[in-house]
Write a structure and sequence with these properties.
Length: 319
Amino acid sequence: MSAPFAYQAVKSDEEAVRAVASAGGAMYLAGGTTVLDLWKLGALQPSRLVDINAVPLNRIEVSGSGAITFGALVRMAEAGANEDVASLFPMVAQSLLLAASPQIRNMASLGGNLLQRPRSVTYRGPDPTAIEVDGRTDAIFGTSARTRSPHPSDFAVALMALDAFIKLRRPTGERVLKASDFFRVPADDPQRLTNLLPGEMITQIELAAMPWARRSAYVKVRDRASYQFAIVSAAVAVRLEEDGVIAEARVACGGVGTRPWRLPQVEEALKGRPADAKELEAAVAKADEGAKTHALNAYKPALLKRTILRAVLQAAAVA
Ligand SMILES: Cc1cc2nc3c(=O)[nH]c(=O)nc-3n(C[C@H](O)[C@H](O)[C@H](O)COP(=O)(O)OP(=O)(O)OC[C@H]3O[C@@H](n4cnc5c(N)ncnc54)[C@H](O)[C@@H]3O)c2cc1C
């Protein structure tokens, strides 16, 4: 049976960080769709859950210049349905609406989404040292002898592509990390998926204004059409010249890395090419540079290239 825990509801981020710092083994509780799941499986044994749902971090703010700030407690469903998010950063709205199920998206918060755990025994069983066996969904980038589970968050892939900022609070102050500094390759320490310090709380997620991100798309390939994690996904934004040639691109992928994976070599190779499938094939051919596969996931590099190609074409077709 799962161990009992104490419950404490707080009303401010200040109160929240103090509550977690004051009790060893305390954890934040947002939507609970990961925490309670893992508690029931014996993978998490919090001494106390600090409920942050009454903390006023549930707003989406859009600036005149087109920057967007999400409170960490905004629900996935609300952010996915927001018209400004959908028009300024289509890949973000799509990554959220293609995740989980409507019921889960109604409960699940954006902050909690970034801290969910991969779907393998190392993360979802009572023994955190359990070693994964080869599987067909394994990552092909950032793997180690200790872990090869792909990072499960769709939203995180879009944040990685857009160089989002993640605002953090702890009892002694605040700091901001770029998405690429927030997520870590777990390597020989599989339980450390981020550079969050013990007790730190995510307060906000910020997207700087990027007018050309209107031409962006998130393509998710999975075993069934809904309610399933990505086998491979791609978040792509393109800046097009007037003649339709790609001047700049952002490319990040899901389902392939032990953290959301940026592909700078593909971004570089896309520059200067017209957005037509034949031209783009040569650019996406570089997507599997550095990939490590085994017999069961050897299909992923080809699928990754096709997924990126679809996402580039979809992004470039936005009017
Ligand atoms: C069946 C199922 C299918 C799913 N499918 C997908 C999918 O396809 N794509 C996808 O991206 N996700 C998917 N998810 C994951 C889901 O999106 C996450 O469970 C959810 O976003 C977590 O948010 P939450 O608010 O419920 O977090 P919680 O469960 O409350 O918390 C999750 C973790 O984050 C910590 N935490 C929460 N908020 C904060 C904060 N502000 N600061 C610091 N720590 C915090 C908690 O302590 C805990 O460790 C699925 C989940 C389920 C159960």
